[in-house]
Amino acid sequence: MKTQLIKDILVSEPDGRTVTVCGWVRTKRDSKNLCFIQVNDGSCFATIQLTFDRENNNCNSADIENQLNKVTTGASVCATGKLIPSPASGQAVEVSLETIEVLGESPSDYPLQKKGHSVEFLREIAHLRPRTNMIGAVARVRNQMAFAVHSFFQERGFQYFNAPLITCSDCEGAGEMFQVTTLDLERVAKSGVVDYSKDFFGKKASLTVSGQLEAETYATALGRVYTFGPTFRAENSNTPRHLSEFWMIEPEAAFYTLEDDMDLAEDFVKYLLNWALTKCREDLEFFDARIQKGLIETLTHVATSDFARVTYTDAVKVLEENNDKFEYKAFWGCDLQTEHERYLTEQVYKRPVMVYNYPKEIKAFYMKANEDGKTVGAVDVLVPGIGELIGGSEREADYDKLKNRIIELGMNPEDYWWYLDLRKYGSVPHSGFGLGFERLIRYVTGMQNIREVIPYPRAPKQADF
Questions:
Q1: Beta-strand (E) ranges in 105-241?
Q2: Distance between CA 285 and CA 47 in Å, rounded?
Q3: Closest Cα to residue 229, out of 253, 214, 207, 250?
Q4: Rounded to two decimals, what is the model's pTM?
Q5: Which of 219, 313, 304 is nearest to 266 (CA)?
Q6: Who's near 288: CB < 8 A, 6+ residues apart?
Q7: Residue 51, exposed/middle/buried by CB under 10 A (0-12, 13-18, 19+)?
Q8: For the segment 282-292, what is each residue's pLDDT rounded down to a tens digit?
Q9: Is the Cβ–Cβ distance between 257 and 432 less than 8 Å?
């Protein structure tokens, strides 16, 4: 069955040639002499109109009428006809039907018969929601952004690295990890004793929260690498900003200082947004009109702005002067809240902001200690609308300093012996950052809840599909 994508047909000349359209019916309007069917195949936001004129046709009307009787919203069809100019507004071409076959009927209990379903309802039918305008548009944007990620790094000499999903190391040190085990949990519960030596890996293992530590091992061999894959957090956060399973983009580059890392992060954000504005224009226009007014203007502003760069200390000074505006008061040593981040980007600097040199107490063990003894070479990229988009740092390259920091935080250096080895054998300055892919898609589309930008959201009490 050779078909043509609707996105290609819609930009073709209406020269009367025969085309074949396959897709799913969005609407059907039938009158005495005319029948109009809107079909979408997912290749673009728009539908194509199939028309059947009962008074003026040179085809087997009986066969077509028999098939038209089966056409309902949600049915799949394969149709052939002449590509002709369309008198309807908003489209240049339509297909004058010659044949149509209903490949899969859709009965009256099809859940998407009507428009205007809530996002909560659509989550309950996650297997069907990609057929809606909104989720279909999200899926196309997600596809383009994934391609853009690879394009950006491949153009800059980064090697794509596949980090393991099962690990015995906690990159963030927060302990909010999903455990992987083959132990009989009922037996463990009865005995009250956990013997990890009898588990599959012979020790406690979990799903990864980040591929960064493993990426560092390859960066110190290949120079520049990046991971792009699923990560997992067992954080019991039922909010519009959190998922239990999400994808992370994590570049890691040898011989990169914090300043180099900041340059890379800024270039990356601008590249991604310009890609979306160019490659996803039709879908972004839908999001701008229906989801977040002014979305395209916001993305364009970020993509064309020079990012401000300010130390954490200076940023906190500004925030402290305006503490009456915040629910959570800012002070030196606090972890910046979303309200603080948005204030900096939207009210103070009116553009993206890179805040760097954070207090070591609120950052991870692997970040490079600054000479002041109080801060580390960390950076967060903040953007208008959501706040933090990227978090990164220069990594600690000194063996003794890293080992002492691990001990200081109550962690066991033996669990990180291989990571410490990188600082023993040919250590180099190196840096990287992490960008949550779903956070990026949420920003680009303007969607309010992160559960709408991943095909099957995993969150507390939600893993039905």
A1: 159-160, 166-167, 179-180, 205-207, 224-232
A2: 15
A3: 250
A4: 0.94
A5: 304
A6: 294, 295, 296, 446
A7: middle
A8: 999 999 999 99
A9: no
